[in-house]
Specification:
There is one protein chain. The chain is 59% helix and 9% strand. It is of the alpha/beta class. It has three domains: 92 residues, SRP54, nucleotide-binding domain (Four Helix Bundle (Hemerythrin (Met), subunit A)), CATH 1.20.120.140; 184 residues, Rossmann fold (3-Layer(aba) Sandwich); 119 residues, 434 Repressor (Amino-terminal Domain) (Orthogonal Bundle), CATH 1.10.260.30. The chain has an eight-stranded mixed β-sheet with strand order 3-2-4-1-5-6-7-8, sandwiched between helices. α4 packs across α11, α9 runs parallel beside α10 and α13 crosses α15. The radius of gyration is 31 Å and the shape is elongated. The two termini are 41 Å apart. The structure holds guanosine-5'-triphosphate (GTP) and magnesium ion.
Length: 444
Amino acid sequence: MLDKLKEGFQSAIKKLVGASSVDEQQIKEFVKDIQRTLFVADVKASIVLEISQKIEKRALEEQPPPGLPRKDHIVKILYEEFASILGGDEGKLDLPTNRTNVILMIGIQGSGKTTTIGKLGRLLSKRGYRMGVVAADTFRPGAVTQLRTICDSISVPVYGDEKEKDSPKVARKGLAFFQEQNCNVVIVDTAGRHKEEKSLLDEMRQISKAVSPDVTFLVIDGTIGQAAYAQASAFHKAVPVGGIIVTKLDGAAKGGGALAATAATGAKIFFIGTGERVDDLEVFVPTRFVGRLLGMGDLQALLDRAKELELVADERQVKRMMSGKLTMNDFLVQIESVKKMGSLRKILEALPGVSQMNLPDQNIEEVEGKLKYWRAMIQAMTKEERENPDLLNSQRVRRIAHGTGVLEKDVKDLLTRYKQAKTAMKMSKGRQFRAMMKQIGGRQ
Ligand SMILES: Nc1nc2c(ncn2[C@@H]2O[C@H](COP(=O)(O)OP(=O)(O)OP(=O)(O)O)[C@@H](O)[C@H]2O)c(=O)[nH]1
Ligand SMILES: [Mg+2]
């Protein structure tokens, strides 16, 4: 299903995750890959632009939460933006059983309305609803017979009148018929072809007026791509669309149609059709669907792989520290890993330098609070200062204190801790750091 879209997303993700670093250029390239994929999937240009701009902005501006590598954060952003365009949570069909709920099906010819009624009829009967179906497609010869054949196979009764050409009238009478039998749900099938589009839309308006639907489902052929946009907005103008059903996602569908239909109507996709049989209907859950598209089934593997790659970077850092170099950036990484790994005491005990300070329990919380400031102070340093903290004379210390709203004493305190860590690191030639890594994450 939607193989092109899947392939495109997944190769873009692979490329991102495999890159040695994620910088602005890498992010822009990733967004370009996503754009290309969407164009191939026949998504409307304005939607492609909107979604890619959002992803780019967030990927460039947002700081990943501590512990989450930037790459994973970007994959997460991609996932969130797509799920949100598709409506986020799953659409809920609210069909109280103490009344007769009316579902109106609209959509152009061949989109799959009649077939989908069979599928929906089956699903709702299984859920225990008393069902009835009204054959209000009076235009196409054989339409009533087709509907009867399908509904016979799922044992749902059909109201139809082959001789009556007035479709709103059939719809009204059919609904009254099933109301009398206390049906819970009545689905109304409609025509998809007409002399011209205008008369088809007029007819939909009239039928809608005749039966006052609780839900109007627009059925969209998943293979038609961005043409779905114009189609969906035309129908939506005639009869407000409450939900979308995308059919034929089992075949050569590219996915653009699904996005276009939701964008044009603001309605959620409730179901997708994945075949011609009555069982080939799936409840649509945007997050799950996007997860599948992005290979979230594989996401765990992806995250694991990302971690592995991050470890390679850690390994490099260890080597550098073993040679006695510890920059403020390395120190910041250590501080961050404290937050990342959770157990502060464990880390503090393992952290070279800090471990020698014998922290009493009551100080732990205090230190946890301090970490936040340490981070801000390090971030307030210039690149050179971070590389070579020896540069930090009293003037610079004052500037940093001012910039982060702390006392000069606090900055000096940070420098002391840093120096302790550095000395310890030098003395143990990185052994302690390796031991720490092992202790906190089973790494190494
Ligand atoms: N592969 C596949 N085929 C489908 C699906 N849904 C519908 N079809 C096929 O699409 C064709 C048209 O389906 P119909 O249900 O007759 O479409 P319609 O919207 O009722 O068409 P009109 O009555 O002419 O307006 C049929 O051959 C169906 O079998 C689907 O999810 N997957
Ligand atoms: Mg039909």
